[in-house]
């Protein structure tokens, strides 16, 4: 398997506050990799830096062997990295259909319509209400829309930031089933989750981020069994 | 009764001019949250661009044919207005993109003064009225008891057509979608692969083109221009944009017609006559800011998640 994404010694600061000080991890093609850790550990900052919304102070990010850490954000998507951001961030005053079209903004091929239909098949509720404004949808439905929107660019790497946040257990299960399905279709997934149990159960590999640094790593099931992880993130011990 | 109808017609014609300018204010605000106080001056340089085209570029032979000279003057006005707006965006506002919001606002006031004075390099007497050609469209058109200049009707028609075209472009086209996305959530728009600079440049260019058209049509209607018309009409347009709800295209156009009507009707019927017609416009501005700061069609300020 080839290394699709490599993050090495990443450090990111907001002014004087260092949100990420030493994050390193690897995402192999075809895998689901999750970054877990407490609120404020630096997971979202890491994703936003990969997407180019933030600039690293040190370290490097390679995608498909090529350095991408100084590219402007709007060019990252065209490289094959899509992000489904924390808090969903759907365009609330636009329709479902327009949100999906925006996800395909960089594409000029004629398969966009077919891909929109595929999203509707995956999430029928979106198809039924395609002309309604995204802001009228429930949190879980907006999460579906945000994932669908991110899929519209046909990314090689899909980064999902807290996709289960604020969702009911049933909805969370649906979202995680979808992630597995996307992997089966060949998309590589980088997942950021506070819900460590669900995320690790799904992941080929997991990394624990604590206070802005990667501290533990291993295959998902192995980390799930690690007493340190269980004590810190699964409320045991 | 005739007077009332006549003043309503005049108000609508004035509103048409203000509306074309107000669209630029509201679009730029929608994208980068900047009140571009120099936008009135873009209207002014547009008018002078049309005048320069007439004086220095049009051959004598076609000056009298309005169907040739008017489109060329409009083109000249639009080219000058768009060029000035893009230079202003690139060199005055872009370097301040991440500065506190007060910095670009004060810069806009500075740019405004620079443009008012810079126009005198080409028109040294621009601080006094400069005659604008009108002979080629010098007709009065009677509609029932009221009579309008052909140029006023032209302004109303052009303003309505361009507003509808703009609304359609923003709502239906791919770039229009990108503009709305950037206005709603700039960071997420970048995650969609939208280049914010491209959207911002396009926004300035469209706003300037509309102001340029307005400037030339205003010139041929009023038959003279000076370097203060930008300030005066810019303030009206700004008020219209705030009244309609800054950021809203529909609001800007409707707000402009309301302001036009307030000015002509206030000048006719309120104490003080035309000497005081500005007062009523600013009374409205103050009332809007106090009681409905989001304007007629604007959204109340929200905190983003």
Automatic annotation (TrEMBL), chain A:
Membrane-spanning intervals of the chain: none
Cross-referenced Pfam families: ABC_tran
This protein's name: Amino acid/amide ABC transporter ATP-binding protein 2, HAAT family
Family: Belongs to the ABC transporter superfamily.
Single biological process term from Gene Ontology: L-amino acid transport
Ranges of residues in domain ABC transporter: 5-236
CDD domains (alphabetical): ABC_TM1139_LivF_branched
Record carries keyword Transmembrane: no
Automatic annotation (TrEMBL), chain B:
UniProt key word Zinc: no
Residues that span the membrane, as ranges: 12-35, 70-90, 102-123, 150-170, 199-220, 235-262, 274-291
Membrane topology recorded in Swiss-Prot or TrEMBL: Multi-pass membrane protein
GO cellular component: plasma membrane
CDD domains recorded: TM_PBP1_LivH_like
Keyword set includes Ligase: no
UniProt KW keywords: Amino-acid transport, Cell inner membrane, Cell membrane, Membrane, Transmembrane, Transmembrane helix, Transport
GO MF term set: L-isoleucine transmembrane transporter activity; L-leucine transmembrane transporter activity; L-phenylalanine transmembrane transporter activity; L-valine transmembrane transporter activity
Location of this chain's protein in the cell: Cell membrane
Alphabetized InterPro entries for the sequence: ABC_transp_permease (IPR001851), BCAA_transport_permease (IPR052157)
GO biological process: D-alanine transmembrane transport; L-alanine transport; L-isoleucine import across plasma membrane
Record-linked Pfam families: BPD_transp_2
Record-stated family: Belongs to the binding-protein-dependent transport system permease family. LivHM subfamily.
Protein name per the record: Amino acid/amide ABC transporter membrane protein 1, HAAT family
Organism of provenance: Actinokineospora iranica
């Amino acid at each position: 398997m080839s290394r699709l994404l490599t993050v090495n010694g990443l450090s990111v600061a907001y002014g004087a506050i260092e949100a990420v000080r030493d994050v390193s991890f690897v995402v192999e093609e075809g895998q689901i990799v999750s970054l877990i850790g407490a609120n404020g550990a630096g997971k979202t900052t890491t994703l936003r830096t990969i997407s180019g919304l933030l600039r690293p102070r040190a370290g490097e990010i390679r995608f498909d062997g090529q350095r991408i850490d100084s590219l402007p954000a709007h060019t990252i998507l065209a490289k094959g990295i899509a992000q489904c951001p924390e808090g969903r961030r759907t365009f609330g005053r636009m329709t479902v259909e327009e949100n999906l079209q925006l996800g395909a903004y960089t594409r000029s091929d004629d398969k966009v319509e077919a891909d929109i239909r595929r999203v509707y098949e995956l999430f029928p509720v979106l198809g039924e209400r395609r002309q309604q404004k995204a802001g009228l949808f429930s949190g879980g439905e907006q999460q579906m829309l945000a994932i669908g929107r991110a899929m519209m660019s046909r990314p090689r790497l899909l980064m999902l930031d807290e996709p289960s946040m604020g969702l009911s257990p049933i909805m969370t299960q649906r979202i995680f089933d979808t992630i597995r399905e996307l992997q089966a279709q060949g998309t590589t997934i980088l997942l950021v989750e506070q819900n460590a149990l669900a995320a690790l159960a799904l992941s080929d590999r997991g990394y624990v981020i604590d206070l802005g640094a990667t501290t533990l790593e291993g295959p998902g099931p192995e980390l799930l069994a690690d007493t340190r992880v269980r004590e810190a993130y699964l409320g045991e011990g | 009764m005739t007077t009332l109808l006549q003043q309503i017609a005049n108000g609508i014609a004035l509103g048409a001019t203000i509306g074309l300018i107000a669209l630029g204010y509201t679009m730029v605000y929608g994208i980068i949250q900047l009140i571009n106080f120099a936008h009135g001056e873009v209207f002014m340089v547009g008018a002078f661009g049309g005048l320069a085209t007439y004086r220095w570029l049009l051959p004598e032979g076609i000056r009298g044919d309005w169907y040739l000279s008017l489109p060329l003057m409009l083109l000249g006005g639009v080219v000058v207005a768009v060029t000035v707006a893009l230079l202003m965006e690139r060199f005055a506002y872009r370097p301040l993109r991440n500065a506190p919001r007060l910095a670009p606002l004060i810069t806009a006031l500075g740019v405004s003064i620079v443009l008012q004075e810079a126009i005198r390099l080409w028109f040294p007497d621009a601080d006094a009225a400069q005659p604008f050609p009108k002979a080629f469209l010098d007709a009065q058109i009677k509609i029932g008891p009221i009579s309008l200049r052909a140029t006023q009707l032209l302004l109303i028609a052009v303003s309505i057509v361009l507003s509808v075209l703009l609304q359609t472009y923003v709502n239906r086209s791919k770039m229009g979608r990108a503009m709305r996305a950037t206005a709603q959530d700039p960071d997420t728009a970048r995650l969609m692969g939208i280049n914010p600079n491209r959207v911002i440049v396009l926004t300035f260019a469209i706003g300037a083109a509309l102001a340029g058209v307005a400037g030339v049509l205003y010139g041929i209607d009023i038959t003279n221009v000076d370097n203060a018309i930008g300030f005066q009409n810019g303030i009206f347009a700004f008020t219209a944009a705030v009244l309609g709800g800054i950021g809203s295209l529909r609001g800007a156009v409707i707000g402009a017609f309301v302001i036009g009507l307030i000015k002509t009707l206030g000048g006719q019927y309120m104490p003080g006559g035309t000497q005081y017609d500005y007062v009523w416009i600013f009374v409205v501005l103050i009332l809007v800011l106090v009681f409905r700061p989001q304007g007629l069609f604007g959204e109340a300020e929200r905190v983003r998640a």
